[in-house]
Amino acid sequence: MPITGDAKLLANQPFYLTTPIYYVNSVPHLGTAYTTVAADALARYRRFTGYDVKFLTGLDEHGQKVAQAAADAGVTPQEWVDAIAPKFQETWKLLSISNDDFIRTSEERHKRGVQAFWQKLYDEGWLYQGHYEGWYCVPCETFYTEDQLMDKECPNCGRNVEFIREDNWFFKLAEFQQKLLDFYAEQPDFIQPETRRNEVVSFVQGGLKDLSISRTTFQWGVPLPFAPGHVTYVWIDALLNYITAIGYGVDDAKFERYWPAEYHFVGKDIIRFHCVIWPAMLMAAGLPLPKHVFAHGFLLTKGEKMSKSKGNAQAPADLAARFSVDGYRYYFLRDVQFGHDGSISMEAMVQRYNGDLANDWGNLVSRLFNMTEKYVDGVVPVPPTEVLAEDGPIREAAAVLPARYEGAMSQLDYVGALEATWDLIKAANHYIENAAPWNLAKSEDTRARLGDVLYNALEAVRISALFTAPVMPTTSAEVWRRLGLGDINATTDLIAEAAWGRLPAGARVTKGEALFPRILEEA
To answer: Residue 424 is part of which domain span?
Structure first.
């Protein structure tokens, strides 16, 4: 993405970003929250740089598994999903997720769009009726061939699979094999990271088979408009949320505004659905393809993937209660390289919290604001008229931060973006140690220099708060407020706002409580 000091240049540029829609078989866990927090940080950053962001998440509510779970509970499928949906919405609110929309596949707007899509493909000859016999994993809602199974068990979740026979409708997926390979060659950054791209290309080169897109053994799904008794296969139903949420088949102007998506964020286990089936469907419909699909890795605890089926999934609310919401968000984007598997542990989370947040950032704000209150009555001094050699490192760290941050975020390198921000935070801490405001305050001869030092350090904090805001929105807003600067979220031209010297003299600084109280126990 381009960097500019004029947000007006970007104000009319849409930026559509999606997470997968999550299946309603349980409450959110750390894995689903990881994807959503990562997407939220990108969405917030792009809003700060002037884009018209549309950030979508939601729920996949159809399928055989939901129908069975509802029957076991003695309720209708709609009642079942209606009871679970608020748990996701509450979790995203807790984690400060700033999604613009929340799509549920049981909504009428989604059903209308799905039916319009399949009617178009039916009319244009991309569908045919046939007979399916094969293996199906109900928990994963996935078809498997004999050679994909592992001792008659699902290769993904390890559960038993069922052999099913149905008369279904099929999509002519096989006809898109070469078209997909050509597209991957023409758009090498469509699939990210590159390791995932290589995996997909190899899979498609191995040959594609036509895809069953309907089920007939249950009715909890979107009916095919041309085939009574057939409902849309749940995975195909789910993929279409990306266009139904922005008006496909209902609101043409909105759809044309935001499609194609800039990014689909997905886990690496569902990349074939998003990078093979989904683009082939769009090609058949004559629609543009999304610009990028980014498949991140798994969160690992003791070497195992975190999942509900393994029983090692944790609730985000539990960790957020201990480490704060912003501490939670920071850890997962700072300690896990997006795109790779990442090992997580409580010990590492405590160390990261105490080291980066309590010591570096929280202590910087606390002691600087206390000194401002003590030495200059809490009023921001006038900006320095002279720049001394010892002022150079802190100003240089601030000057290079916007470009470094943009460079990292354009590659979805959250670790790199946060490292660039922390270089300024650490520079500010070193600056205070070297300048020693407590000594400058002892003599009238050094009072002018005291004001210059405090201004420089406060300005570094202001700029740091801007660049921590996408990841730690609540804390950054609080720092901004304590600097007397109002609402940080009103910022839509981050580059201009990050220019040195924009902290107004005379602003009232408020001390406040510790941003990140140190956690004493290490386990």
So the answer is: 345-497
